[in-house]
Amino acid sequence: MAGQVLLEINGPIAIITNDNQEKRNAFSDDMDKQLFDILGELRATPSVRAVIWRGEGHSWSSGRDVGSIGNDTTGLSHHELMTRGHKGIQQLFDLDAPVIVPIQGWAIGGSFQRALLCDIRIAAEDAKFMLPEAGHGVIPDTGGVGRLFQMCGHGVVSDMVLTGRSLNAQEALSLGIVSRVVTREELDDTAMEMALKIAAAPAVTIKLARRVISHLAQPEITTSMADELIYQTFLNKSEDYAEFRAARAEDRTPNYRGS
User: Fold this and answer.
1) Distance between CA 165 and CA 109 in Å, rounded?
2) Which of 2, 25, 158, 207 has the most CB atoms less than 10 A away?
3) CATH number for the domain harbouring residue 169
4) Residue 244: Cβ within 10 Å count
5) What string of DSSP letters covers 78-92?
6) Which domain holds residue 140?
């Protein structure tokens, strides 16, 4: 069965679940649309006071489902898909309810970036985080690099983006990427405890506190995403990217020209 993104609403708590377990919850274009529709539904559901965005099985999400690349059923150009993706995930900023992300296993690429755009991340002890895009000839393009820069600064972001190195849960905790590390068995229960505590507070208090925090961070994120849209669109038409793909297909050393 193709991967799904599921929504369950229990009173004031909404639970979004990544469910593509055969591919460690990698996202296809269809799953993107399901996620964006869910975020739109939550925007229109003021009774929801806290959101948990979890993953079923081994990993929270291993990023993009590479098996779905080239099988586009949307009819959209690359630029249009990116525009849809940015508008879709930016709905997170419009929610009144904070979003808690309990992460187990891998959080990779665009999925990791989406988690970074949420309010709170907690990690199981086996969690790992990675931005491998440069190794595939492209750049991170989902807005999370801007948020990671705010958290960790220039050096850590450059290391992760330019070399593709991964971080484990304890490193992520020390850098402020996650706020708690728990056992995998405790992960979902911890997220629910946090959500219930948020939902028990006065709604307007949570909404305004979240808005203050958002105003500190959001302008830089939207500016970063605008740059990503332009640069990634250029990259997909660049000589170097064409050479990258040709060299891989022909099993040879690429000859990059910087254009």
Assistant:
1) 12
2) 25
3) 3.90.226.10
4) 18
5) HHHHHHHHHHHHGGG
6) 4-186
